[in-house]
């Protein structure tokens, strides 16, 4: 009898089996590789073919290649970088050749004496930080390398690239040129196999050789374009032995003790490895910087996942995932046979349905159905041929132009032999619920269901799952082909719970925005207790809603329109068509917020014109924005440009009803009891203190103080809003006692979570961050957050095992090696937020690798969700995430093609739905929410099926740069969520000067002033009297004033509401002191400083204004990428203060892609604090970096989610929770009354 398994063996059977491998190996449980008897003839033939195709070829390098030199700088590279002595680059389309032997192509391991290796190829800047890479558009530069000194590869890290080193740089060899491909393939293949074996052996030292062999033979070989074979492994043993000798001695000894290597070298004579110190692999090229070292692919841990995520990721990701917990059970032979029989049944069913499509149906009504009569669900109402149908049955209907499909109908095959082998019923037929039979027409009313493959999920869908839609139709009776059993099940059922031909649905799908929602009883096709479902059809209601929304009806003292009541003396927002731009000048024309007015009269058209469709008009008393006239106010008033501050006028205007956007609330500031709550309650809350005769104010003499009694309001609407604010205050009081507990597994400096905390309903209790500097920054700024400076994969493994009762060694912090506290457990986290890492998708999409591990951290994130099951999830990523395809193939060793289009998004949604989460996603523009920059990012919000699904915030600021933010799906649908019409947002956009003009002005001191003409020296000396100058000293960590402690000071008082918030920004009732303003720049080389101070002080000035003798290679050389792009603007670019920051990224140097980094009116680049202001960080937020590296601080800022965007998302979450809280209170009150 077998011994009883331990708890460890039950929970982690894979690891338990590997722990027993020594015993089974010693008992002869595995064949020696040498004894497997795999035919050697095939192998010998392949080796002969390799030798033939890899014969040396003469190579003539093109004459126009740029020679590699010390001065060579590629686009995206930072020539000021002090983090590594040499830049790291990618080399694509490369050729290695020997100039001492007739320039013949050769392998890097050619060992004959007297060789001199050179190389050519397309060089691009390589980035450790994926955010850097995503923000660069570089096309690369074709170069010639005259001295290839050494090559290295780390065999212990899966996927780690092969590097060559030259006197000037390191190059990652990514893809060979066509002429060199055969030579390269024969060289690199043996090293890739060695790397695969050794990295796997080190990651799992007690690995079962049988498991490894399965892993090896299911790994795709991009070179041979087939899976590796056992023969490949056997023939590579000499190369593997050589690779071990190249490893560090410590790693080599560990390898020789692993089960896989012991099995592989079963012959004791093969187990002797001689270590060659001259061949030892080099240390990391960035080992001196822990913040970058942890991001290197070679230092990334394998992706750890839960069993559920592993099963859903099967055949979609190439990495060998580490399953934490019991792995998904393997199907036995009986189950596989059952699946095969089920597939045959489904195919037979499809053939039968297709054979009936062109046949005439025989339709018989079994009873009359009237809308006024109660319907019995179990009584048949229709017979088609020999099948009877009842109300509520799910019908099978051929896809046609009029059957709810937005795409062309399929071609129906006229025989079984023309049906594709992978075809399914849902490729040719729709499903619809029978709701009603029309008594006087040969039609029926149906409610459509979407099969999961017909949604945004596409190929990555549960083939058993359907989704209810809000689309209904009248369909001819003749279209009925049969019926199918589709069950409403609130949670994902197990596979064995459904029959072969059964489906289920649990969510509604909104095709307009691609969102998925919990089904309420009234949403069901046949609502409970409905007398007649036709009268209660939710599809009909949804169809009528937009029309009813735009229709108006007269009410007492007002009008009902766009779902709201409007009365005389209501304050309203009205669409701004730009009619005031000419009078307000250029500045007013750049941003165009909605008009604000007080309704004074509602003018209804005469009945005759009303019948012809004429709309009412509304007369409003206009209110102006103090920000437009603040510069006219006397200095002693301290007037600032506050987006909430309005002034009342005596100017009246008439607007068509269609200009009406909604109500807002305006109150005299002295009558607002809790000003902070007033502002936080809604972006549509304003205050007034002044009045003027008209909107166009010529002088402050025209402005007067406004008495409180002069502020009108509609009493019922005002009182209702006051009651709402009182309830909101009570709700926030409850949430303060028990906020949502948040985990961020990829926290950065915590801006996402801390911005959400401003809502008053969440608290970031746990955060994981792998970068030591970012973790320290987060810990110092959020003292209530438990921060884990560790890899999220390792913390997940620790958490899952600890929860299972398995002893695990405590993890230690990467930065200071301190022991970490216990990780969070299920029930301790209510919400997960994450700006999850993902491989770059914009600039290097054509050079990405199909097996890039950075892409797979999404699996770790979803595993955290699976393990903790929070109530809510908020995820963020770059816009390019929408272009992330799954299961691409390595088309030419460096370009990837094919795969599942938008697979990353589809998989993310698919997994969340499988875990019973509602989901919606969109693109958000940071400028729409009060950030002074243009920055578009992808966001997704998920909520468990028992919660309200929060909305995304509508734009609150009128941001001029055009972008409709649509998401185009592979099937042609266009998803959109936000209202993007200009002139409809309540506030003006925040400009650069709105954000930073109160910060201390200073210049860099000219490094070679003596060489300037006398008039230039006089001008600079005159300027220095009012604007201080600071040396840019290469021995200092930064350049600029030291504004710490009591020495914190500003140029002036706050000039705008944005500046006021940044200087005192904290949650309501909290105070945070500014301890270090960090208003300094990075130290750059004297030549760069000289160029910066010579750029004219005018908006959008750049390198093109510099004299020829100051131009640098990247800007002026005809071989440079900039020259090939027509000398485009931006290098050394000066920001337009009345415009907006470009996307704040992690590389903020004058020659980086985000080239517009010079201060609007100072002779320097922007400071750390100015950059932080562009992202909305409050001034009390301090950035910490190892060795006080300003570049590291730039990375922390550029990687963050803009604080105002997080606040806007938090506001929507708060409102959703508030509504849920009110619903529960009302339900409790009703139950008490009963």
From TrEMBL:
In short, the EC number is 2.1.1.37
> What segments bear the compositional bias annotation Basic and acidic residues?
17-34, 41-55
Catalytic machinery residues: 838
Q: Name one GO molecular function term.
A: chromatin binding
Where is it predominantly found? nucleus
- Lineage, top-rank taxon, reads Eukaryota
Q: Which InterPro entries match?
A: BAH_dom (IPR001025), BAH_sf (IPR043151), C5-Methyltransferase (IPR050390), C5_MeTfrase (IPR001525), Cytosine_MeTrfase1_RFD (IPR022702), SAM-dependent_MTases_sf (IPR029063)
Q: Where is the BAH domain?
A: 387-520
Q: Where is this region: Disordered?
A: 14-66
Q: Which SUPFAM superfamilies match?
A: S-adenosyl-L-methionine-dependent methyltransferases (SSF53335)
- Subcellular location, in the record's words? Nucleus
The processes (GO biological process) annotated in the record are:
DNA methylation-dependent constitutive heterochromatin formation; methylation; negative regulation of gene expression via chromosomal CpG island methylation
Q: Which UniProt keywords apply?
A: DNA-binding, Methyltransferase, Nucleus, Repeat, S-adenosyl-L-methionine, Transferase
Listed under GO cellular component are: nucleus
Stated family: Belongs to the class I-like SAM-binding methyltransferase superfamily. C5-methyltransferase family.
The name this protein carries in UniProt is DNA (cytosine-5-)-methyltransferase
